[in-house]
C-alpha cells in the first residue's frame, strides 16, 4: 500500500525508498534464516504448513512469533501465548511513539504506516535527531517481509530435514541481528551509557518478571534524556 | 498438550490483531504534530536502550533465568567481527558455525 502511494511523489521519497531497499538486503538474508527456524519450530509445535506460513505473513514480528511458540510448546494455553507475544511486541509501543511525529496523514493512514515498523527498519530510518525517514523505513522493511515469508515456507515444508535448530546453532542468529543494529546506534557517550543502563536493567529483571517485560522496562532508561539540557 | 487446528488459528489471528494494534498505537495517538525538544532527546536514546536490552536478554538469558551456552561464544565472536566492520551476513554465518561446532564437540 505504501509503495503505491509513492508513485508520483517527489524524487527524495523515491531515492530514500531505493536506499532503504539496498540497506534492507543483508537484514533480509538474516530474516530468511530466522524465519526458516520459525517454520521448523512451528511445525514441531503442531502447526500445519499453511498455518506456519500464514503466521509469518500476517503477524510479521519475529520475537512475538518465537515467544508464542515457546509458550505453547511447553503446554501453556492461548491466553498465555498471546500475552508473551504482546509483551515481546511491547517495544513497538515505544518505537511507534518515537516514529509518530514523522508520519503524515490521518489516524488510519498513520496506523497503516506504523505496521511497516520492524526493528531494523526503525533503527536505520532513525536520523538521530528525533525524526525518521519514513520512505527509508518502508524500503528497508519490504525485502525483509518477502524473505520472512519465504523463509517460513522453506522451514515449514522442509522442517523434517532441519529438525534440530538448536544443534544447528540457529539460535545464534537473533542476537547477532540485533547486535549489528546496536553497534550503529552507539554514536555518542549518552547513547553508550543508555545502552549499558538498558542492558543492565533488562538482565536484572530477567529472573523476576515474565519474558518481554525486562525489555520494555529497559526503555525507561531513555528518560534520562529529560534531564539533559542541551542548548 | 497440543492445540487443535482451530485453536491454532485462534492463536494466529489473535496474535496478528494484537501486533497490529500495538504497532498502530503510537502513530495514531501522537502522529501529525510537533513534539517538544525533551521528547526528541528521549526518543534518540530509545534505540540503543531497547536494542541492548534485546541483545543481552537473548545472549545471557533463557526464559526466566540467566544462562550462557555455546551460542554466547558464537555471538561473542560475531560481535568482534561486527566491531571490525565485517558484513552482517558473514558475521551471522560465523556465529552459527561456531555455535553448532561447539555443540558438536
- List segments of chain A where confidence is low: pLDDT < 50 over at least 5 consecutive residues: none
Question: pLDDT average of chain A, as an integer?
Answer: 86
* Helical coverage of chain B, percent range: over 70%
User: Total strand count of chain A, please?
Assistant: 0
Shape annotation of chain A: globular
Indicate the proportion of strand residues of chain A.
Answer: under 5%
Described by strand count, sense and barrel closure, the largest sheet of chain A is:
none
- SSE order of chain A in H/E notation? HHHHHHHHHHHH
Distance between the termini of chain B: 33 Å
- Helix/strand-derived category of chain A reads mainly alpha
- Poorly predicted runs of chain B are none
Number of helices of chain A: 12
Helix-strand sequence of chain B: HHEEHH
Estimate the helix proportion of chain A, in percent.
Answer: 55-70%
Describe the structure.
The complex is a heterodimer of chains A (231) and B (105). Chain A is built from twelve helices and no strands. Chain A has 231 residues and is mostly helical. Chain A is globular and about 50 Å long. The N and C termini of chain A lie far apart (40 Å). In chain A, 68% of the residues lie in helices and 0% in strands. Chain A has helices at 2-6, 11-44, 49-58, 62-73, 78-89, 91-99, 107-114, 119-125, 134-157, 173-185, 189-205, 213-218. Chain B is mainly alpha-helical. In chain B, 77% of the residues lie in helices and 4% in strands. Chain B has four helices and two strands. Chain B has helices at 5-30, 37-60, 70-83, 88-104, and strands at 61-62, 65-66. In chain B, β1 (61-62) and β2 form a beta hairpin. In chain B, α3 runs antiparallel to α4. Chain B is flat and about 55 Å long. Chain B starts with a helix and ends with a helix. Chains A and B meet through α2, α3, α4, α5 and α6 of A and α1, α2, β2, α3 and α4 of B.
Amino acid at each position: 500500500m505504501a509503495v503505491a502511494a509513492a508513485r508520483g511523489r517527489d524524487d527524495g521519497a523515491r531515492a530514500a525508498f531505493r536506499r532503504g531497499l539496498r540497506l534492507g538486503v543483508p537484514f533480509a538474508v538474516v530474516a530468511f534464516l530466522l524465519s526458516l527456524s520459525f517454520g521448523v519450530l512451528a511445525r514441531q509445535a503442531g502447526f500445519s504448513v499453511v498455518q506456519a506460513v500464514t503466521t509469518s505473513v500476517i503477524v510479521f514480528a519475529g520475537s512475538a512469533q518465537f515467544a508464542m511458540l515457546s509458550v505453547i510448546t511447553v503446554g501453556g494455553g492461548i491466553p498465555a501465548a498471546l500475552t508473551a507475544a504482546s509483551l515481546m511486541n511491547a517495544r513497538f509501543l515505544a518505537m511507534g511513539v518515537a516514529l509518530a511525529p514523522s508520519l503524515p496523514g490521518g489516524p488510519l493512514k498513520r496506523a497503516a504506516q506504523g505496521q511497516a515498523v520492524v526493528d531494523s527498519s526503525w533503527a536505520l530510518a532513525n536520523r538521530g535527531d528525533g525524526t525518521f525517514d519514513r520512505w527509508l523505513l518502508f524500503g528497508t522493511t519490504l525485502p525483509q517481509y518477502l524473505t520472512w515469508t519465504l523463509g517460513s515456507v522453506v522451514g515449514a515444508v522442509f522442517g523434517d530435514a532441519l529438525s534440530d535448530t538448536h544443534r544447528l546453532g540457529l539460535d545464534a542468529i537473533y542476537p547477532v541481528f540485533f547486535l549489528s543494529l546496536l553497534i550503529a546506534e552507539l554514536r555518542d557517550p549518552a547513547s553508550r551509557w543508555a545502552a549499558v543502563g538498558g542492558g543492565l536493567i533488562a538482565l536484572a529483571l530477567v529472573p523476576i518478571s515474565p519474558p518481554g517485560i525486562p525489555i520494555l522496562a529497559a526503555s525507561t532508561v531513555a528518560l534520562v534524556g529529560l534531564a539533559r539540557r542541551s542548548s | 498438550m497440543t492445540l487443535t487446528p482451530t485453536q491454532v488459528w485462534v492463536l494466529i489471528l489473535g496474535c496478528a490483531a494484537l501486533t497490529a494494534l500495538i504497532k498502530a498505537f503510537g502513530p495514531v495517538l501522537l502522529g501529525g504534530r510537533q513534539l517538544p525538544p525533551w521528547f526528541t532527546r528521549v526518543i534518540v536514546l530509545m534505540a540503543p536502550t531497547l536494542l541492548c536490552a534485546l541483545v543481552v536478554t537473548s545472549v545471557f538469558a533463557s526464559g526466566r533465568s540467566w544462562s550462557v551456552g555455546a551460542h554466547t561464544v558464537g555471538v561473542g565472536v560475531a560481535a568482534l567481527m561486527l566491531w571490525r566492520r565485517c558484513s552482517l551476513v558473514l558475521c551471522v554465518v560465523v556465529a552459527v558455525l561456531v555455535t553448532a561446532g561447539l555443540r558438536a564437540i
